[in-house]
UniProtKB/TrEMBL annotation, chain A:
Membrane topology label: Multi-pass membrane protein
Region span, Disordered: 31-52
Keywords: Membrane, Transmembrane, Transmembrane helix, Transport
Transmembrane parts of this sequence: 61-82, 135-155, 164-185, 191-216, 237-260, 302-320
Highest rank taxon of the organism: Bacteria
Protein name, UniProt field: Carbohydrate ABC transporter permease
Keyword Membrane: yes
InterPro entries assigned: MetI-like (IPR000515), MetI-like_sf (IPR035906)
Broad class of where this protein is predominantly found: membrane
Location in or out of the cell: Cell membrane
From TrEMBL, chain B:
Superkingdom per UniProt: Bacteria
Pfam families: ABC_tran, TOBE_2
Organism: Roseibium aestuarii
Record's keyword terms, sorted: ATP-binding, Nucleotide-binding, Transport
Name assigned to this protein: ABC transporter ATP-binding protein
Example of a GO MF term: ATP binding
UniProtKB/TrEMBL annotation, chain C:
Residue intervals of the ABC transmembrane type-1 domain: 73-288
Keyword hit for Transcription: no
Pfam family, one: BPD_transp_1
Record key words, sorted: Cell membrane, Membrane, Transmembrane, Transmembrane helix, Transport
Subcellular location: Cell membrane
Highest rank taxon of the organism: Bacteria
Recorded topology in the membrane: Multi-pass membrane protein
Recorded family membership: Belongs to the binding-protein-dependent transport system permease family.
The protein's name: Carbohydrate ABC transporter permease
Length: 336, 363, 296
């Protein structure tokens, strides 16, 4: 993912807490999502003040024509990867990469999964896949747990100095990772976690913190303050309010955070290659080693199958989650 | 008797901004006190301080004789009702009502009994299993009151509880709150910027401005004897008419402003010291200005031209021009006056209010 | 009724403070501490292990004398300039097209955005394959009869960075498009009505009214793209490995290679400090404009 800083006050719409719909008259404090009148929120299509388009006008032809061409261009790499992965090597050597396979074979997929060789071992991508899963699950849970509590503390329990640290965190999101890589190597080595999955999990949690904290802070800040006050009058403390009041009403933001982290961590390469050892490499690193290994004959079909396999997790998330993904990356676009 | 709530020298700062300034306030046992003031004057802030939701900068707060200045909101023996209801959206009404009791670790049977009793009082028994989203505005506010009720608190704090409701419902709930108070007899502090709510509900009203209390009195007193020009202007609708002028004369004081020359014989000066010549403002409420035959007999009568008419059915308010400035008067609902008509108006000095031009305090 | 003094402050909000420890630790130890550490050690001649033998600006002299670093910088500049311009222009044009009340908007958007879900490694490998001169576009066009057709960016040191650019744009334009679309949707529709009543042509409305109104989104997009550019690493590793030769090296790769391959930590620290400096030069004026100006 493009990892980039966030603008504290940009116009992206983050999910907002859903509260009871406010009836009839004045919907002041409960309406958590004030959309300025006359503007449309998010990416919902809506009526505009322009001329309703005639079906087959020249203008429409141009618009749909252009968009279709662009869409084809964007789909091309995926298409080429898929057809290549379904061909045998002889057909690849003779044929045209854009041509559909004459004879479909799943051999490359099987090979990519269980036999493909990196420089070191030949047990296929499956090893990388399971490593990635073992990295992903704890990283996602840990980073979201930390960031949501942090965001909640920042939004509702302002204490002295909190804003300062938060600012450092957000500014830190702009710092190139390269500057912090080596000090972290040293820290992890000191505690004996360098080269372990645990170490990588910690690294992911640390670098996920700025954007996730911002995400959660903004979300919790948009929960009406009176709800929080009511809970305090009801005698609920820090954790009771978090678990009993805030958590149950923040499902959407958790989904967004999960999408963000799953794709971000799954797609990570840099941290994987630095903080783990070869037998613990995540899938992206292993994929790169398989495809770009200099030994042996290049098996393009296997390479493409492996590439698709690696892209499969984020792609499924993307296609399954639809609009939430857009929100997730809109927020994550912001990722440091 | 010991006051139920006692606030001493309370100040609160938001950063460098002093929002509450050295407030003193005593609220009696079972009293219904309304905090009234324009937006941003610090009403909610004061209420939040009493509730313990804001940490005060200076001063002390006592509730029921106990110093609660540094205590947690839940330990202060208060119940609070918010403008936006602030019901927990994921819990049923019963869940909302019992949340605080569960946090306090009360036994289950006790919780159930209290929830039932509160639900009965507020007639929300059929709604107990519903989520807030499935309730109407009035029902939500009732549930929110229920949440305060189950706490068996001595003190209830309301922060504009009715302002999210439509006018009709607001009037109904206002009556219910009043009945609730006479039934429960606990101390209530009620924030509003609605004068009608303030006048109808309050035992005493505190008018706030810029973080201070200007006047703390019964509704009647506040209406009849506002202690400063701000309060006079704030209470009453349409608001009081003002004339800037001078008090003149020796033994027989008169108020003079343009063509207005009013003998002050019947006026009760708040402070006999104030009864001397000098610049002053005279205020008179629209409903205390009489017209027609009545006006001819009044201490002062003037002819003014009608400029604008606002018929409300029960009353008609007319804006008339006098000496180039406007004043509002109240006419009978059936009055046939038209803009352009000339009208004789007058009023009695007893009905007027005099304020010092500089200090704006009542004379 | 006695007055009570304010109790000690530190244990107020104690849970919140405890909960903020990870954030505080990250901010202090890693973001501030780590950065400072690297900057300090960039003035040493650390090799395999960091050591405190300070050599002044020696590492920087060597850095700026290294052709690999100079190539990296040049590549970053070319890649950065083009990807900034193209991503903004294409992203905006696509968003404007999608904003024309069209049918299948969701489908088009889904297609344009999916590359962003993929990792740079996958993106790089896919385009490495398509741009492969023996099998990819060049081979296909030659197969159609145009024998002299040459299109082998990944094997030509002069244009290899443009090959990377193609992949980079494919990956990120969808995101910029989505941002722009959100921006367009945020514009009051009455603006369009007013412009129509005034008889302003659509393109003029976009150019002189809509785009200036979207200033915030454009700045977001620019900051987004710019800080992505500086971090470009995985894409190059996957697509070209920095080759042919050193023709497609980038600073992030230079840092990695120096630190973990050639055991030249000092060089890595100096190079990463230069990257930090670049970010500071980009971000500080922006932050000043965005936040500093508001305060007045
Ligand atoms: N958290 C805060 N930080 C800084 N200033 C605040 C904060 N909360 C309130 N204020 C300021 O304190 C003053 C009093 O606010 P308060 O909410 O008490 O007004 P109010 O009388 O309740 O008004 P309203 O009728 O609009 O509810 C206002 O000027 C407000 O801007
Ligand atoms: Mg208020």
């Amino acid at each position: 993912m493009t990892k980039t800083p966030h603008l504290l006050k940009n116009s992206l719409k983050f999910p907002q807490p859903e509260l009871e719909p406010v009836d009839t008259t004045v919907a002041v404090a409960t309406a958590a999502t004030p959309t300025p009148s006359g503007t449309r929120s998010d990416l919902e299509p809506g009526p505009r003040g322009r001329k309703p388009a005639r079906r087959f006008s020249r203008r429409n032809l141009f618009i749909y024509g252009t968009l279709t061409l662009v869409a084809l261009y964007y789909l091309l790499p995926l298409y080429v990867m898929v057809v290549t992965s379904l061909k045998g090597m002889p057909e690849i050597r003779l044929g045209n990469i854009f041509a559909p396979p004459l004879e479909i074979t799943f051999e490359p997929w099987v090979k990519a999964w269980s036999e493909a060789c990196t420089g070191l071992n030949c047990d296929g991508l499956s090893r990388g896949f399971w490593n990635s899963v073992r990295i992903l699950v704890p990283s996602v849970i840990l980073s979201i747990a930390i960031a949501s509590v942090n965001g909640y503390a920042l939004a509702n329990w302002r204490f002295k100095g909190a804003e300062l640290f938060f600012t450092i965190l957000i500014v830190g999101a702009f710092i190139p990772y390269q500057v912090m890589i080596y000090p972290i190597v040293i820290m992890l080595r000191e505690v004996g976690l360098y080269g372990s999955l645990t170490g990588l999990v910690l690294v992911h949690s640390v670098f996920g913190m700025p954007i996730l904290t911002l995400l959660f802070r903004n979300y919790f800040a948009s929960v009406p303050e009176e709800l929080f006050k009511a809970a305090r009058v009801d005698g609920a403390g820090f954790w009771a309010i978090y678990f009993k009041i805030m958590l149950p009403m923040s499902l959407p933001i958790f989904v967004v955070a999960i999408i963000l982290q799953v794709t971000g961590i799954w797609n990570d390469f840099l941290f994987g290659v630095i903080y783990t050892k070869p037998d613990l490499y995540p899938m992206t690193v292993q994929l790169n080693n398989i495809v770009n290994s200099t030994q042996g004959v290049k098996e393009y079909n296997v390479n493409m199958a492996a590439t698709i396999l690696t892209g499969l997790v984020p792609l499924s998330i993307y296609f399954l989650s639809g609009k939430l993904f857009v929100r997730g990356i809109a927020a994550g676009a912001v990722k440091g | 008797m010991e006051p139920s709530i006692s606030i001493r020298n309370l100040s609160l700062d938001f950063g460098s901004l002093r929002v509450l300034k050295d407030l003193d306030l005593n609220v009696g046992q079972g009293e219904f006190l309304v905090l009234l003031g324009s937006s941003g004057c610090g009403k909610s802030t004061l209420l939040n301080c009493i509730a313990g939701l804001l940490e005060i900068s200076e001063g002390q707060i006592f509730i029921g004789g106990r110093n609660v200045t540094w205590e947690e909101p839940s330990q202060r023996g208060i119940g609070m009702v918010f403008q936006s209801y602030a019901l927990y959206p994921q819990m049923t009404v019963a869940g909302n009502l019992s949340f605080g009791l569960k946090n306090a670790g009360l036994p289950k049977a006790e919780i159930a009994a209290r929830v039932d009793r509160a639900a009965k009082i507020l007639q929300i028994e059929p709604l107990l299993d519903r989520k807030p989203a499935a309730l109407s505005g009035g029902q939500r506010q009732r549930a929110a009151i229920g949440r305060a009720l189950v706490r068996d608190a001595d003190v209830f704090l309301f922060d504009e509880p009715l302002s999210n409701l439509d006018a009709k419902l607001r009037a109904d709930l206002r009556v219910e709150i009043k009945q609730l108070h006479s039934k429960l007899k606990n101390t209530m502090i009620y924030v509003t910027h609605d004068q009608i709510e303030a006048m109808t509900l309050a035992d005493r009203i505190a008018i706030m401005r810029g973080g201070s209390i200007l006047q703390l009195d019964t509704p009647e007193e506040i209406y009849l004897r506002p202690n400063c020009r701000y309060v006079a202007n704030f209470i009453g609708s349409p608001s009081m008419n003002f004339f800037d002028g001078r008090i003149e004369g020796g033994d027989h004081l008169r108020f003079v402003s343009g063509s207005l020359n009013l003998p002050l014989a019947g006026y009760a000066f708040a402070d006999p010291q104030g009864a001397r010549p000098g610049p002053a403002t005279l205020g008179i409420r629209p409903e205390h200005i009489v017209s027609g035959a009545e006006a001819e007999a009044a201490a002062i009568s003037l002819t003014a031209e009608v400029d604008l008419i606002e018929p409300l059915g029960s009353d008609t308010f007319a804006r008339v021009t006098l000496d180039g400035s406007n004043l509002w008067i109240r006419l009978d609902g059936q009055a046939r006056t038209r803009p352009g008509d000339r009208l004789v108006i007058g009023f009695a000095p007893e009905r007027a209010h005099l304020f010092d031009l500089d200090t704006e305090l009542r004379l | 009724m006695a007055a009570m003094a304010r109790p000690a402050r530190w244990h107020r909000n104690i849970s919140a403070k405890v909960a903020a420890i990870p954030m505080i630790a990250t901010a202090l130890c890693i973001f501030i501490g780590g950065t400072a550490w690297t900057v300090v050690y960039s003035f040493t001649n650390s090799k395999l292990l960091p050591k405190e033998s300070f050599v002044g600006l020696r590492q920087y002299e060597r850095l700026w004398g290294s052709s690999k670093w100079l190539t990296s910088i040049e590549n970053l500049a070319i890649y950065g300039a083009f990807s900034l311009i193209f991503a903004l222009v294409i992203g905006f044009l696509l968003a404007a097209l999608l904003d024309q009340k069209i049918r299948f908007e969701d489908t088009f958007r889904t297609i344009l955005l999916y590359p962003f879900a993929l990792s740079f490694i996958v993106t790089g490998l896919a385009w490495q394959w398509i741009l492969n001169p023996d099998f990819g576009v060049q081979a296909v066009v030659r197969g159609l009869g145009w024998e002299s057709f040459t299109f082998d960016p990944l094997y030509n040191p002069d244009i290899v960075i443009y090959g990377v650019l193609i992949a980079g744009l494919w990956h990120e334009t969808g995101l910029i498009m989505c941002l722009m679309l959100a921006g367009l949707r945020g514009i009051d529709e009455d603006i369009w009505k007013a412009a129509r009543i005034d008889g302003i042509p659509t393109w003029k409305t976009y150019l002189f009214i809509v785009i200036p109104m979207m200033r915030g989104i454009f700045i977001t997009a620019i900051v987004l793209i710019a800080s992505g550019i500086i971090k470009v690493y995985d894409l190059v590793v996957a697509q070209t490995g920095g080759g042919p030769g050193i023709a497609s090296e980038v600073p992030a790769k230079y840092v990695y290679d120096a630190m973990f391959l050639s055991q030249n930590l000092g060089q890595g620290f100096a190079a990463s400090t230069m990257m930090l400096l670049t970010v500071v030069i980009i971000v500080v004026p922006w932050a000043y404009l965005e936040f500093g100006g508001k305060r007045k």
